[in-house]
Amino acid sequence: MKSNQRIAVVISVVALFLALSSLSSASAEEYDALKGVDSAKVFFDMRDGIPKIAAVHMKLIHDTYQQLAAMKKKPVFVVVFMGSAVRLISSNRSVFSSEEHKYLDDIADTVSKMSQVGIHIEACLAAVKYFGVEPASIQSEIEQVGNGWISQIGYQAKGYQLVPVY
Q1: Which residues does 18 contact at the CB level (< 8 Å), separation at least 6?
Q2: How far apart are CA 71 and CA 50, in angstroms?
Q3: Distance, CA of 41 to CA of 157 (rounded, Å)
Q4: Are 63 and 21 a contacting pair, CB within 8 Å?
Q5: Can you give the C-alpha Rg of the chain in angstroms?
Q6: How far is the C-alpha of 34 from the C-alpha of 122, rounded, in Å?
Q7: Following CA atoms 3, 124, 106, 14 in sequence, which dihedral angle do they give, to the nearest 10 degrees?
Q8: Which residue segments constitute the domains of the chain, with CATH numbers given?
Q9: Considering the entire predicted model, what is its pTM?
Q10: Other beta carbons less than 10 A from residue 46's beta carbon
């Protein structure tokens, strides 16, 4: 399957999921998996470097946080940008096409919204260095950490559940 077709399929599936999930009000009773769960500590390993798909993933993470909060499940989310995904949160957009800039704007807007509700966001400086991203160009709401894997190890040791986004 060609890359553009793959992207279209992924976006269509996620868009369908978002549309269906917004039609119903989420309650704890709708999710057997959440019975007896009082809080949700989640670590999102964000490595999806394709702007269009990453924008959808970021919105889905934010929506999931809001749904869990509405169910009184006390969500605690951490999103760590690693790998090529660090280029998505830089003000230097020279590696992206002009068509991709709208998705980068969506990502920046979602990062701000996530930060406002208490979602913690980090950028891996090892990846920043590897991909030639200037640390000063990283969006201000994002904490810069030396090594995203060390953050991942620490959060998992504290009971955070890993959700890979790549």
Answers
A1: 59, 60, 63
A2: 31
A3: 11
A4: yes
A5: 16
A6: 27
A7: 50
A8: 39-165 (3.40.1260.10)
A9: 0.82
A10: 29
